[in-house]
Design goal:
By secondary structure, this protein is an alpha+beta fold. The chain contains two helices and eleven strands, in the order E-E-E-E-H-E-E-E-E-E-E-E-H. The chain folds into two domains: 53 residues, no CATH class; 104 residues, Roll (PH-domain like), CATH 2.30.29.30. Helix 1 crosses helix 2.
């Protein structure tokens, strides 16, 4: 998806919508599948939830560039690698600029949500950021056809499914 002013466009199929000042969507072709963005978002969530329930959710291995922000000081290019987000959580592996390996594994149980950015700072592209107590990794998938929005929704759905699995479901409205 991309947007310009009050227009949304699907870059895959070319369909466009116009959003009113009240947040209502209308398809420029006269067909409006979802008249409000929250309805569209919940439809997307339901599709991701179905993949999680079937046990089939996975981004597959995606090439990524990783920047690090240790102690929230300044960005440093960590290196190139791969990321997988699947039924086990996130796994990021790669080689840093000095040729040393790096890895971050975030299990499903360790993340009830994840932070995503679209076109970060207007020049880096979409990203997922994952944190430790000492660092934040800004992970930029490239050369792939996968939406960070889906990763964010899947992170929440995976966490909730795991809580249900262990008999400790989240109260409604949490996670």
């Amino acid at each position: 998806m991309t947007s310009h002013g009050d227009r949304l466009e699907c870059t895959a199929c070319g369909k466009t919508w116009t959003m009113s000042v009240y947040g209502e969507l209308s398809g420029d072709d006269g067909v409006t599948e979802f008249s409000h963005i929250p309805d569209w978002y919940e439809w997307e969530r339901a599709n991701v939830r179905r993949e999680v329930e079937l046990g089939t959710y996975s981004t597959g291995e995606m090439p990524v560039t990783v920047d690090t922000l240790p102690n929230a000081k300044r960005f440093i290019r960590l290196g190139e690698g791969t990321m997988i987000h699947d039924m086990n959580g996130f796994t990021v592996r790669g080689t840093d600029v000095d040729g040393d390996p790096f890895e971050m594994v975030k299990s499903v149980q360790s993340l009830y949500s994840c932070h995503i950015e679209y076109e970060y700072l207007g020049r880096h592209g979409d990203c997922v950021d994952l944190n430790t107590l000492e660092d934040t990794w800004y992970i930029y998938p490239h050369d792939c056809d996968f939406a960070v929005t889906k990763m964010a929704l899947a992170t929440e759905e995976l966490y909730q499914a795991d809580r249900r699995r262990i008999g400790r479901p989240c109260p409604p409205g949490l996670a």
